[in-house]
Amino acid sequence: MKNLLLSHDATFKDAIQLLDTNGNGFLAVVDEANVLIGILTDGDIRRAILDNKTDLLDIINKKPATMPEGSCSGNIRNQLKKSHKKHMPIVNDKGILKDVITLNQYEFNLKPNWVVIMAGGLGSRLGQLTKDIPKPMLQVGGKPILQRIIELFVSHGFTKFMLSVNYKSEIIKDFFADGKELGIEIKYLEETKRLGTGGALSLIDIQLDEPFFVTNGDIITSIDYEEMLS
Q1: What is the CATH number of the domain that holds 38?
Q2: Which of 54, 145, 185, 198 has the smallest number of Cβ neighbours within 10 A?
Q3: pLDDT of 131-141, one tens digit each?
Q4: Contact 157, 109 (CB under 8 A)
Q5: Which of 54, 79, 105 is the last residue in one of the domains?
Q6: Residue 154: what pLDDT?
Q7: Nearest to 159, CA basis, from 175, 141, 178
Q8: Residues 35-65: tens digit of each pLDDT
Q9: Domain range for residue 18?
Q10: Number of domains in the chain
């Protein structure tokens, strides 16, 4: 990451020289504490020259897209693909730059296949554990089970999900929303009453032209879903 960092007090010439050296067309501009101030690209430099600007603080993009430290690598690469960007700064909760992920580190083809996850059950056999939360949102290793399921699929190139929800569905929907923050697409199959697996699938209202996965929302596995699809 060293050749991608530029100090906020660097000169315009410094920026051009570093861009020329790293060959990535991207720089992360940081202060003395390594807090991300913004980013600078080859395009920013070209526009600056056309506008006769040489003050870096007037040139840099001060509101770049970032992702939090600890983000799943699959989510990062999907977000890069979907936003048509090549670089993603990774920051902690204090805004300190921890890494810059480049697309060529994670280049792969996104799959067109949908993943349907059954997440509407009561989880009654778990007693008090599911009194206030749906079973798929119980945490294992610091993350909800459902998040771990989604992240494993994402790591194999799947980005289109349907979640069948019923019991305390608002908790799941509030957590995942439409999936954009994870670089994925999420649709919800709303069960007004518990329908079972077949019944939930009957709620799908789009044409599925590719094979699709159906899995329960409480299964943690290390299956290679890309290999399974093949």
Answers
A1: 3.10.580.10
A2: 198
A3: 788 899 999 98
A4: yes
A5: 105
A6: 86
A7: 178
A8: 999 999 988 998 899 899 999 889 999 999 9
A9: 2-105
A10: 2
